[in-house]
Design brief:
By secondary structure, this protein is α/β, with parallel strands linked by helices. About 30% of the residues lie in helices and about 25% in strands. The protein contains 6 helices and 13 strands. The strands form 3 sheets. It has a 9-stranded mixed β-sheet, with helices on both faces. A two-stranded antiparallel sheet has the order 2-5. Helix 2 runs antiparallel to helix 5 and helix 3 crosses helix 4.
């Protein structure tokens, strides 16, 4: 019988992918135009990690799931009103910026410190979940940094499948070239898993799950401490990538000629 896991999911808040984002310089440095007005979602990659954590916790009796998130409290509350109806978790909230203009090392330090402060967390049974990529600020490095600060050396990225053997071994499938997977056997926790898209669909809304979560979410949000993560980081400018378009109408050109011209333009 496999022992229960303590699963911590690191998840940030990101603007809804359908929104147009425009960087501007604010009093504290670069930010997004009308950021507080933009509808937000839980980072899509991290959301998959949360679904996988919930599924694993249900399959192993006694397992627990914590969601550790750094975001402005109003945005985090807005997002959690939706997520709390889908999966069960205990919230550890940090009040900090959610834009991409932050220092990743400082974010990792703040998240690791919050995880270390979780009451009742069994580090020997810890599985640290998060997104392999991010729609916000991860840059593919934050989760790995959190794992390093916690002393976890078994780290796996681009995970699609996690299977738990009867002997407690973790069978982990990581994405590789050509649509294939690298399969690794890990002796057990602690381990870091950066999830790709996994294999689970988005859970349906459950009012019962939402009501159970809300008993702990609001107190956790009220206790969220401010976390400054931009100390010493300076930006000289922030702007959208410049668009360049030049169009010519050419008749009777062969495909080879068109391809050669495009290649020459790219090289130039």
């Amino acid at each position: 019988m496999t022992e229960p896991f303590h699963i911590v999911v690191c998840a940030g808040v990101a603007p809804d992918p359908l929104q147009t984002l425009e960087p501007v310089m604010g009093p504290q440095g670069p930010t997004l135009k009308n950021e507080l007005m933009l509808p937000a979602v839980l980072d899509p990659w991290a959301a998959h990690a949360l679904y996988e954590a919930n599924h694993l916790a249900k399959s192993i009796p006694g397992s627990r799931v914590w969601l550790v998130s750094m975001a402005p409290k109003p945005k985090l509350q807005q997002v959690l009103m939706t997520m709390a109806q889908k999966v069960s978790f205990e919230l550890v909230a940090l009040d900090g910026p959610a834009s991409g203009f932050v220092d990743y090392a400082q974010v990792a330090y703040a998240l690791a410190e919050a995880i270390e402060g979780i009451e009742g967390l069994n580090r020997s049974r810890l599985l640290l979940f998060g997104g392999w990529e991010s729609a916000g600020r991860a840059a593919g490095v934050t989760l790995a940094m959190v794992g390093e600060r916690l002393g976890i050396t078994e780290q796996f990225q681009a995970v699609d499948v996690l299977k738990i053997g009867d002997d407690g071994l973790l069978e982990i499938h990581e994405r590789a070239e050509g649509g294939k997977h690298q399969v690794t056997l890990c002796g057990g926790p602690p381990a870091v898993l950066g999830w790709a898209t996994g294999n689970l669909p988005e859970p349906p809304n459950s009012p019962q799950t939402g009501m159970a979560n809300m008993r702990t979410l609001m107190p956790a949000l009220q206790k969220a401490k401010p976390v400054p993560v931009n100390g010493g980081l300076q930006f000289t400018s922030a702007s959208l990538p410049r668009q360049q378009r030049s169009t010519r109408v050419v008749k009777d050109a062969s495909a080879e000629e068109v391809a050669a011209e495009i290649a020459a333009w790219i090289r130039g």
